[in-house]
What we know:
By secondary structure, chain A is mainly beta. Chain A has helices spanning 22-28, 154-167; strands at 45-47, 52-60, 65-72, 76-83, 87-94, 97-98, 110-113, 118-123, 129-136, 139-142, 148-152. The mean pLDDT of chain B is 94. Chain B has helices at 31-37, 162-175, and strands at residues 53-55, 60-68, 73-80, 84-91, 95-102, 105-106, 118-121, 126-131, 137-144, 147-150, 156-160.
Amino acid sequence: MATMTAPPSDKAEIVDIGYPYREIVERTSPGGRYIDALTDVDSPWVPFGDNAAIKHLAFDVRRNLFSNILWVKGPGVIGTHFHRGTITMVCLEGSVRYLEYDWVASPGGLILEVPGESHTLVTEHPQGCKLFGWMEGPIDFYDGDANLVETVDVFWMINHYETHCRDHQMKPNPKLYL
Amino acid sequence: MATQEKPASLGGIKAPPSGAYKIVSVPEPHKAMLDQYCISGTYVGQSEEESPWVPFGDNAAIRHLAFDVRNNVYANVLWIKSPGVIGTHKHRGMVWAIGLEGTFRYLEYDWIAGPGDFITEFPGHAHTLVTDEPGGMKAFFWMQGANEFYDENGNFVETLDVWWFMSHYENYCKEHGLPINRQLYL
């Protein structure tokens, strides 16, 4: 079998690949979609405490997955939390670190987290940080005395988004629901 | 990739395209990568040497079959030995199960699962597993993520996930001088 060393076509046109099951895909798949993450057109900033906000981008209730941008607006902390799923995040602006690790994430940097670890998110950047995340739930949040306060998952995220929509007379955007 | 000749009728196969009782060498352009990185599949037979029944309370036991720490996935056989209950618990990941022996049901639903029956459960559901069979039940479960257990007053007690299941298995092995079976670790 040949191997691919570069994209095998540079035709700027749609090539019909003859996929034999396209009709079934069209009938049953939720379909890919584009969500504008730079503006508030598709999804507003929803306050998360006084110094942070979340822009919800996707909810998948089948796999307890959610995607959003976390914005910490100035130096601050998202207290210790414990993950039971896998997390992929990209730092978009500012900088951020976890007290548990020795690295500092800066724009463009990729953060991977795996089930079973707890950590404490801190930004010391004057403008805080923005983090794009693709996350698998749940996440257990603790108070400063290590008491479990709430287990957050895709349903918490949906509620956070929809409560804000309701309070601001906005219609929830069906694009965010996979 | 070189253009490959398209099969005459794409999407038309009605049966496996080979019935040859032999290993057919399939094209593999990245064999060196697979040799170095591809994870081996596992086999866990029925013997207790391969994986013992680990007590889960007085009337139940778990036979652990797989732990996947990357995906927080765990697979096992649950055995409830006589009429009994696995109290209300809430899943935050997905569950797949097939009944093996006896029957079981959830108080929340109207079906009863027997041998060969297949069920799924999605994140966000809490349910209460019971068997009313004199001989109890056995079922194979494949689960992802957190599984929260509550007492009979609805007080949260503990969240079980792959780490709990691994600990359940390893502690039993340690206490009984049994070797850890690496086949259980994906």
